[in-house]
Structures are given as C-alpha cells and as structure tokens.
Amino acid sequence: MQAFVSFITMQFQLCSIFFTFSLGTRTHYFGRTILHGGAKYRATGRGFVVRHIKFAENYRLYSRSHFVKGLEVALLLVIFLAYGFNNSGAIGYILLSISSWFMALSWLFAPYVFNPSGFEWQKVVEDFRDWTNWLFYRGGIGVKGEESWEAWWDEELAHIHTFRGRILETILSLRFFIFQYGVVYHMHAGKESTSLSVYWVSWAVLGGLFVLLMVFSLNPKAMVHFQLLLRLVKSIALLVVLAGLVVAIAMTPLTVLDVLASILAYVPTGWGILSIAVAWKPIVKRFGLWKIVRSLARLYDAGMGMIIFVPIAICSWFPFISTFQTRLLFNQAFSRGLEISLILAGNNQNAGI
C-alpha cells in the first residue's frame, strides 16, 4: 500500500515527465558521442532552481536534443492517424499511441513545466521579446551563442567535423524523405496513382519552393540601389504563388486537404535536406549556398519555437495555471509557510509594487 501511495505521489509531482525528459538527454548525447566522438560530461538533469529561465535559454539548451526529436515523433503520430491507422476507432488509436504522445509532449514542454513562473503572462511577454531579439540578431566575431542565433547555430554544428560523421549524418537524414514518399501517394491530386512520376512531381514542386526561398532570402542591404525592385520582385513572387495555389485548387484535383498534407510531406523533407547540407558544410560553402541554408535553418528554428511558444502563451492567459504550477513546484515550501513570491522575485525591487 505504501508503494502504491508513493507511486501516485510521484505522478502528481510529474516525476514521469522529468524522467522521460532526462532519459532523452542521455539518449541524445550517447548517440552523438557514438557518431562523432568527443565524450565528455553532460548534465542530464537540473537541480532545484527558484529563478525563471528564459525561453531562449531553454531553447538553446534543448532544441537539438529534445525539441527536434519530439516534433519528429509528433509528426509521425499525426501521419499515422491520417494515413496508417485502421478503423478501430479513437480508443484504439489512443491505446496504441498514448505512450509515444507522452514522450513527445514531455520532450517538448518539460523544461517549461518545471520552469518557475513559466506561465506568468509578464514573463512570457518578456521571454518572447528576448527570444525574437536573439533569433534575428546577426552573429559576428566575438559574439556568443547566448547573444545571437547565428553564433549558436555555428556552435551546434561544431561536432560534425569528420568524414565518417558526415557520412553517418547523411544516412540518418535520409529517413526524413520517407515522409514525403508516403504522403504524396495519399493525396487526391495523385488520383491514387502509384507511378513514380507522382513522386518526381512532388520534388519539382519542392524545387519551386526552394527557388522561392532563394528570392526571399536575398539581403536588401547587399542591393542598396535596387531595394525597391527587390521588394517588388518579392511581392510579385508571393502573389504569383498564392494565385497559383488558388487556381490549382479550383481547376485541378488538388484540394485544401492536399495542401495540408503537402506540409506534412515537405517539412520533414526540408529538414532532411538541411541536415545533409550542414553535414557537408565545406562543400555547400564552396558552391555559395551557405546563406540560403542558414536562412532555411533560421526559418525552421522560428517555426519550432512558435510551435512550442504558442501553447505556453495560451496557458499564461489563465492565472490559475501559473498558480497551480507554483504550488506544484514549491509544495514543500508552501507547507513550511515560506514566501515563494519573494523568492521568485529575486533582486527585483519593484516586485511588490
């Protein structure tokens, strides 16, 4: 009976979420060491803290080790629900996928669940401002990863430096292309065709999107005398794409669901291309494509950050969630009658005003 009570208490304390997240840390760095070497001490957990950790700092710490993998698992589960699940009903899907959803959500949101004042609206607003400043601040000589996304991104790629590591990264990245191969044959525009031409057409569309990315990644500062022309070209390109999409939906078998399905197909494919490009960084730089790769990487990080940030912002609209989180994290302190609000305020002299 005592063991059962202890187990229930651990669940209320969210120990399962913390353990799942900590296990993801171990798995990531064990895998990186096997692929690239460079074994060293890695912190797999975090001690008791009373200060609020900014969103950008958590993103820097756990983006590649947890968030990318969590989103990949979540995307697989969505595709499984859309195309791979039979007619056993919602209960069957829940029973089959609940453990995977638990792992994915734990990897995505555990750092913010255990972050003091993580759902306090004022903190969330400040975190968003800090994160956007970090994301769009250009790196340079002497700029650290804590100050600029570009500097942080370069640091994250430092472990890929051997030919063996590049080969292994390329092989592992090929798995992302399977998403596209599986999804395009379920689109209405394919008319249930199993011909390889459907797959190659999807790559042609992806090539068009890549050209569009090249247009939008042009730096206005590098074209001082043609800024007006550049803005005009970008506007026309955007309007042409939107008009073409509307015409395609109206005049062809392409449907709105196909457009949503193409997102499930192209997002993993783009990440796979990006992963291969950064693995072969010297060659990509030699072809002069590194700026485009960096723009694509920034776009992906911005998207991943927003996917994680939006639920946090929505939860911060409800004050009782922040109150519940504080009570959960500092339950023993509440029992002892400590002033938690003063501890969380730290050195902020205006906290009590």
Automatic annotation (TrEMBL):
Domain of life: Eukaryota
One Pfam family per UniProt: Glucan_synthase
Residue intervals passing through the bilayer: 6-24, 67-85, 91-114, 167-185, 197-216, 228-251, 263-280, 300-321
A cellular component term, taken from the record's GO annotations: 1,3-beta-D-glucan synthase complex
InterPro entries reported for this sequence: Glyco_trans_48_dom
Keyword match Amino-acid biosynthesis: no
Domain Glycosyl transferase: 2-172
GO molecular function terms listed in the Swiss-Prot or TrEMBL record: 1,3-beta-D-glucan synthase activity
Assigned keywords, A-Z: Membrane, Transmembrane, Transmembrane helix
GO biological process, one term: (1->3)-beta-D-glucan biosynthetic process
PANTHER family linked to this entry: CALLOSE SYNTHASE 9, LYST-INTERACTING PROTEIN LIP5 DOPAMINE RESPONSIVE PROTEIN DRG-1
Designated name of the protein: Glycosyl transferase 48 domain-containing protein
Organism in which the protein naturally occurs: Triticum turgidum subsp. durum
